[in-house]
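Forwarding the complex inputs:
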Amino acid sequence: MRLLIELVVSFASTIGFGIITNIPKRTLLPAGITGSLAWVVYVVVAGQTPNMILPNLLAATTIGLLANVAAIWVKAPVNVMYIPSLVSLVPGAIIYMSMKNFTLGRETAAQAGLVKTLSIAIGLAVGFVIAEAIFKPIRRPLRHWFEARR
Amino acid sequence: MPSEKQVIALCGRVGKILLENGAETGRVESTVEYIGAAAGVPISCHAEMTAIFVDADTDTATHLIKVRTKDFNLRQVDRINSLSRAFTSGTIDYATLESRLTTIESSRRDYSWPQKILGAGLVSVAPMLVFQATWADLGLAFFVGIGGYLASQWLGRRTTTPYISIGLGGMVIGLLATLLQRLGVATSADNIIISALMPLVPGVAITNSLRELIARHTISGLVRAMDAIMVAGAIGAGVVVGSACVSLLLGGAL
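Prediction (whole assembly, two chains):
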């Protein structure tokens, strides 16, 4: 039940960000599916470990794989899927909290926030690298497979 | 056949649209080079966040296009992508490519305002907070987020000063959220603020920054990362000013 709510909310939020950044209509659905599944991966993994990096890493890997498949499927640039799917994972809230602490003169909290942002960003980046590495050898066969079915 | 100069100029226009609307530099370079090769002119392209260089390998002439990134519009990237696919696969000829490119440059397809407002509202309910904030707060965040988004869009169309429109968005959100808490409608202003900031958060910049760094386009990656930090700073400052205004008006601690 809890996961279902998370799935629906993150789906809506991915679609919403897709509309704001103006992605083509045919890519809204694949982007929404990618974003919501990645968020569920994040929630499940984050429930198992106190580690900040691992959930972000696995969620980014999920996005990387699904977005690449979707990009071939609907014939669109990968970035069009990546950007809306990442909206729930991108450490925007933490950057904001840290900048707020900065403006209020709480330097220690501000620095902690920036380091946290950096570690999440590293987690996401490593996840993407893993996804790209896995996807590279299967891109061409997958494209042929989709073309043959069309 | 088009002359070398014409192909270089056209490739420059393609690159400019891609970079301005949020494509990564690697994609800009490869798309431009594919189009050049398909048009019969071997082209080298070097894209950086602020400029694109297009050079025909057979000639000494180099074309430099200045780019200033502003509003992202991923649909333009997609349209150029489809166009270049059609051209490189031989479905359309050079003249069609040129005329379609002009169409893409002059017409920006967009979602309607009601759709965008709904989108901003949906983003404003952050999944991060679903089981931390109360449902009432998330419901309020839906509307506060729309307010912040509209404020930043409104100012963004009226000024060229960077970062100020996003700061105004943050300010409106801080103002509304603190006001709602003071009036006793909302439980936690902080939760509403974090949730409602989602449409303004520099998601495109952070995503692209990561992808550029991974692809070893280090300079572009750092430029985008710094831009993201500046945007976050503008939002943070805006929110603090907004909350402070409410505190000044209604009294109480800042």
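Chain A has a mean pLDDT of 88.
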